[in-house]
């Protein structure tokens, strides 16, 4: 949301307030500082081994308390997190219009990803304005009965943030220990539906890749949740070229993606970022709410099946023309101007209400 916050703050028509949930404080302030954004309110809901129940109730109560004391004309939320749903619900309870950035994504399976598919469906049921990143996500909304006048194809602000960060330059320290001329693969995995055996299969596939190609380096930023990080570190224990890190700052992560030969990830946003960077991404899920990546060929669905991950990863490593062909494929998730489009739409929305 940072590029949109900055674009709104440049517009004299609006008084823009920023609320942060405070779920991961260090990660939060790294991101805000990078973009020069300050949170007006930090709900500071973080607690050890927090549950979805806790996040939902704490954000719902915190955002509601803010809105009670500071009535707003529009509440903007992004994506499919539990924070997104709880914030939108707080707005709905107070009849505050909700604008959903990254609206309309669908996997059409409530269990995958979990709980994100339910979060975005419920948010889209109570929103007033829908900022869809692609024509397909806009069509999903129309098929569900959302009126044409409330759906706008804008691209995703994620791409705005990515391109802005690339323009800043600079080299992240995390890559300094990895020889610059040796191949690097970036891997992230954290989905709740993959915890346990599926995540082990992902890691065993990565392990066999390192054994077959000892020149390869694997960079693994570990999620804060111990259910994910403990499985990963145990399965990849003893691999000399596996580098574990704490969650990277956003500029570090962007540089790591850009440095990689390809990416292995179950993240939704990474599918979008990889397409913009022209980097192949092996999608560690059985289905994706971003089918555009698969359709244009910037992403390959491999699920959590060890043999399929190995096969596709080896093809990317060993078939150089195939890997390079990804650079010629289109990036369907935005051109870096989503924030400007959303600001213009919001201005017209308020003008129409006068």
Describe how the helices and strands are arranged.
Elements: H1 2-9, E1 19-20, H2 25-35, E2 41-42, H3 52-69, E3 75-78, H4 82-93, E4 98-101, H5 116-126, E5 129-132, H6 135-143, E6 151-153, H7 157-168, E7 184-188, H8 197-212, E8 217-221, H9 226-235, E9 242-245, H10 250-259, E10 262-265, H11 268-277, E11 281-283, H12 291-296, E12 299-301, H13 306-318, H14 320-325, H15 338-353
Parallel strand pairs: 1-2, 3-4, 4-5, 5-6, 7-8, 7-10, 8-9, 10-11, 11-12
Helix pairs in contact: 1-15, 3-4, 4-5, 8-9, 8-13
Describe the protein.
With 354 residues, the chain is of the alpha/beta class. It folds into 2 domains: 2-156 and 335-353, Rossmann fold (3-Layer(aba) Sandwich); 174-328, 3-Layer(aba) Sandwich (Rossmann fold), CATH 3.40.50.2000. Helices cover 47% and strands 12% of the residues. It contains 15 helices and 12 strands. It has helices at residues 2-9, 25-35, 52-69, 82-93, 116-126, 135-143, 157-168, 197-212, 226-235, 250-259, 268-277, 291-296, 306-318, 320-325, 338-353; strands spanning 19-20, 41-42, 75-78, 98-101, 129-132, 151-153, 184-188, 217-221, 242-245, 262-265, 281-283, 299-301. The strands form 3 sheets. The protein has a 6-stranded parallel β-sheet with strand order 9-8-7-10-11-12, with helices on both faces. Strands 3-4-5-6 form a 4-stranded parallel β-sheet, covered by helices on one side. It starts with a helix and ends with a helix. The model has no long low-confidence stretch (mean pLDDT 93).
